[in-house]
Amino acid sequence: MKDGRVVGLCAALAALAVVACEGLAQEGQIAELKSIDAFSSAGQVVVNGKQTPYLVRHLPTSSFPALSAAVAEDLVQRGCLIPQTYEAHGPENVIHGSFSRAGSKDWAVLCSVRGTVSLLVFFQGAEASPTVLSTAAENTRLEWNGASQKMEFDWGIDAATPELVHEAQSGMRRRPAKLDHDAIASSVVNGETVFRFYTGTAWTFVDTSD
Fold first, then answer.
1. What's the CA gap between 83 and 192, in Å, rounded?
2. Within a 13 Å sphere around the CA of 68, how many CA atoms are in the beta-carbon half?
């Protein structure tokens, strides 16, 4: 009888432990959502003549610990937040690759400050002087997200290897030679991707169709 009581007590404690763990997990998820919401911006934009709600989620520079110290410091000084597309499954829009030349260790970042987002490129050894490749108002880079019933951010960047760019050019009648270092793929969710490549003296768009 005593053993039965002990077993019952142990089972009850185990059940309580499971409930407690589930509660902690839920609290963690709520805290994470609150953290994301703290860096979000929302408002209204006119779509087809109607006021439509929009939402842009951001992450702080600290969410990207792999960033070089020099780049992270510059982003913090600028007051950058990193906008996230509505399809993001993890921190995005901070990328690294060999963008200036083969073997270089460079970074590209979408930096949002007070509603304006810029594509910044930091070349290795010249992090204090990033190149601004593109700038736009955040609320002009939006797309309808049926899941949330809102307009949400749709601009994403990725590193594009020479092989990836060459594959994108496979349908061209006069396919160019393979690039010798990485390009930056600038994409719209459910839309087109354009490749930007540094030639050694200037940035250019890479042809992927005739």
1. 19
2. 19
- Rounded to a whole number of angstroms, the CA Rg of the chain reads 23
How far apart are the C-alpha atoms of 20 and 103, rounded to whole Å?
A: 50
Q: Which residues, at least 6 apart from 141, have a Cβ–Cβ distance to it below 8 Å?
A: 117, 153, 154, 155
Exposed / middle / buried, residue 66 (Cβ in 10 Å: 0-12, 13-18, 19+):
exposed
- DSSP annotation string for 45-67: EEETTEEEEEEEEEE-GGG-TTS
Q: How many CA atoms lie within 13 A of 195 on its CB side?
A: 23
pLDDT in tens, 1-51: 444 444 443 444 344 343 333 444 455 444 444 445 789 999 999 999 999
Instruction: Give whole-number Cα distances, 123 to 6, 31, 62, 80, 184, in Å.
Output: 66, 36, 20, 18, 13
Domain parsing of the chain, residue ranges: 56-205
